[in-house]
Structures are given as structure tokens and as C-alpha cells.
Specification:
The protein has one helix and 16 strands. It is mostly beta strands and about 200 residues long. Strands 1, 4, 5, 6, 7, 9, 10, 11, 14 and 15 form a ten-stranded mixed beta sheet that branches. This is DUF4402 domain-containing protein.
Length: about 200
């Protein structure tokens, strides 16, 4: 009995096996609201999505995706501003993504999410710092706040100069990286495609 696992970004309107839903949002605290609007982007990195390597058989137990093999998202924004990252994920992968199977142990697989970030300016897992994820049987949640580019122990600077009509944000943009990985625990389940959803929201603070 073989289970097939694949991860396709929902923005592609494709069939999910392990799904990733990405939302990027922009909001501002009062400190920056008077200075106008800055854009922020959440970008998918690489051709490969989060995949639990198979074949994966019924009753095969723990299957792990390590940090080094994680799914990577890039946050592109103003380097001296902080961002809030909020993460939610379903605590189980369900056969065909059918929510009616949530309480059926033969058609659901426990999923433990892990996440990390780096704001060193490079996509390098060796400098990644973990994001605390609270995993429960029904839901995984986590959040983090950090500057897009590390201040390297320096305190925050003064509020940014208000953007004008000649302001070119690309001159002050930098990239931070998010990493998603984790494990599944495969019990006595029926064969098929199992999927869940991870939602990531990023906004300025």
C-alpha cells in the first residue's frame, strides 16, 4: 500500500497533496503610517515543493523532511523595517483533503510542522533560527517578528524617510527567507493522496 505525497502551491490552482497557501499582506503601525505605503512580496523559491519522499507505506511510522530539504519562501521588502510572520497549518493530512475524515484514523495522518527563518541576507540554512510552532492534533500555529535584514545587535534606527514620487524602493529592498519542514506519522491508513494546508501571512510592523 503506497501513499503519494506532493506539495504544490495553491496559487497555481493545482491538485494538492500537501498544500501550501501563501498570503502576503501589508499593514502599518502608526509610526510608519504617516510615511506612505511600502510594498512587500512573498515569493516561492525553487522548483521543488515540500515532498515526503516515498514510497510511503501504511504503518511505516515517522517520515521526516529535515531543515536542509525544507520548502523555502522569500520575503522581499524594505531592509530596515520589521515584519510579522504568522503561520497556521492543519494538524493532519486528510485523504483527498476531505474534512469529513478529520476523526477517521484510517484516512488521516498526523502532521507536525516546523519552521525557521534567516535574515542574514543569504538563503543559507546554517544561519536559520527556529520559529516556535505550537502543534496540536487539529492545528499548528506560530509567529515571529524580525527585521528583513538583521541589525546585528544594533537597536532599531529612526523612522524611515517618507517616500516621494521619486522614491525607488528597490534600492532599499532586501530578502529574508522562511523554511518549512516537519514530519508525518503514518499509521494504518488506506492508500491515496493526503493533503493539508499551510497558510503564511507577512506584514510590516
Amino acid at each position: 500500500m503506497i501513499l503519494i505525497f506532493k506539495h504544490i502551491k495553491t496559487a497555481f490552482i493545482a491538485v494538492l497533496l500537501i498544500g501550501l497557501s501563501v498570503n502576503s499582506a501589508l499593514s502599518q503601525d502608526i509610526e510608519f503610517g504617516q510615511y506612505g505605503t511600502y510594498t512587500i512580496e512573498l515569493e516561492d523559491i525553487g522548483l521543488e515543493d515540500l515532498v515526503f519522499q516515498g514510497p510511503i507505506n501504511s504503518n511505516s511510522g515517522i517520515h521526516q523532511v529535515e531543515l536542509i530539504d525544507s520548502k523555502v519562501l522569500a520575503i522581499i521588502g524594505v531592509k530596515y523595517l520589521d515584519v510579522d510572520v504568522d503561520i497556521t497549518a492543519e494538524g493532519k493530512l486528510l485523504l483527498d483533503g476531505n474534512p469529513t475524515y478529520d476523526s477517521d484514523p484510517q484516512r488521516s495522518i498526523p502532521f507536525t510542522l516546523e519552521a525557521a527563518f534567516t535574515n542574514s541576507g543569504e538563503n543559507n540554512v546554517s544561519s536559520a533560527r527556529p520559529i516556535g510552532i505550537a502543534n496540536t492534533p487539529s492545528l499548528s500555529t506560530g509567529n515571529a517578528r524580525f527585521p528583513i535584514l538583521s541589525r546585528r545587535q544594533r537597536p532599531p534606527g529612526p523612522p524611515p524617510t517618507p517616500p516621494t514620487g521619486d522614491f525607488d524602493q528597490s534600492l532599499v529592498n532586501e530578502t529574508a527567507y522562511l523554511y518549512f519542514y516537519g514530519q508525518i506519522d503514518v499509521g494504518n491508513v488506506v492508500a491515496g493522496s493526503y493533503r493539508g494546508t499551510i497558510t503564511v501571512t507577512v506584514e510590516y510592523r
